[in-house]
Design brief:
It is a single chain. 31% of the residues lie in helices and 19% in strands. The protein has an eight-stranded parallel beta sheet. Strand 4, helix 4 and strand 5 form a beta-alpha-beta unit. The longest helix is centred in the last third of the chain and has 15 residues. Bound molecules: D-xylitol-5-phosphate (DX5) and zinc ion. Zinc ion binds next to strand 2.
Length: 218
């Protein structure tokens, strides 16, 4: 089943309660949580305390995307906060294989994120250690950017790599996913789609979620 993972970054933080309640009432299963440290990316978002707080109010699968240097120093905090999936950028840590296995040892799924400039060849020696591959379709750091069409080819290549691995790995994309381009990206073999500004906007969460799933089902 293909799924949408709304990115909390685009939510109205004054009114988180009603937005989480609305998400709980839709068919959404995942919530994408963007963690930015002002170092790996030129923006700062929120940390594990916010996630821990939300954990008491929803059963959504917490899909944590770390955009931080030295992610190994913070894994325990995000596990304790209730993360179900933790993904990190391999260039932010010295031993990505060790980190992926550490995350899994905590009973949490481990993902690696391929920034726009990172070649899919990095997967060759990582794929046996991971549960999820998150492909950036914008340069990370900000919501509301445009999908970079050149990444389509990389997505198709990664789909093949996953299929040939015979492993059960989720292929996720992040950035610039909209109601009018999701179908094309889905056809490249993506399982999970992050969408921030296209979910949290004036058209309404429930309406946007329904429009997205309509596109995925056609
Ligand atoms: C970008 C983040 C994305 C972002 C997506 O650094 O990783 O998850 O919130 O936002 P949209 O869907 O608006 O591009
Ligand atoms: Zn993200």
């Amino acid at each position: 089943m293909k799924e949408i993972a709304p990115s909390l970054l685009a939510a109205d933080f004054y009114d988180l309660k009603s937005q989480i309640e609305e998400l709980n009432s839709t068919r959404i299963k995942y919530l994408h949580l963007d963690i930015m440290d002002g170092n790996y990316v030129p923006n700062i978002s929120y940390g594990p305390d916010i996630i821990k707080n939300l954990r008491n109010h929803t059963d959504l699968i917490f899909d944590v995307h770390l955009m931080i240097e030295k992610p190994e120093n913070y894994i325990d905090n995000f596990v304790d906060a209730g993360a179900d999936i933790i993904s990190f950028h391999p260039e932010t840590t010295k031993h990505p294989n060790r980190l992926a296995n550490y995350i899994k040892s905590k009973g949490v799924k481990a993902g690696i994120v391929l920034n726009t400039h990172v070649d899919e060849s990095v997967l060759k020696y990582l794929i046996d250690d991971i549960d999820l591959i998150l492909v950036m379709t914008v340069v990370p750091g900000f919501g509301g950017q445009s999908f970079i069409p050149q990444i389509m080819n990389k997505i198709e290549n990664i789909r093949k790599i996953i299929d040939e691995s015979n492993r059960d790995i989720i292929l996720e994309v992040d950035g610039g996913i909209k109601i009018d381009n999701i179908k094309e990206v889905s056809d490249a073999g993506v399982d999970l789609f992050v969408a921030g500004s296209a979910v949290f906007n004036e058209k309404g969460i429930t309406n946007n979620v329904n429009e997205f799933y309509k596109k995925l089902e056609n």
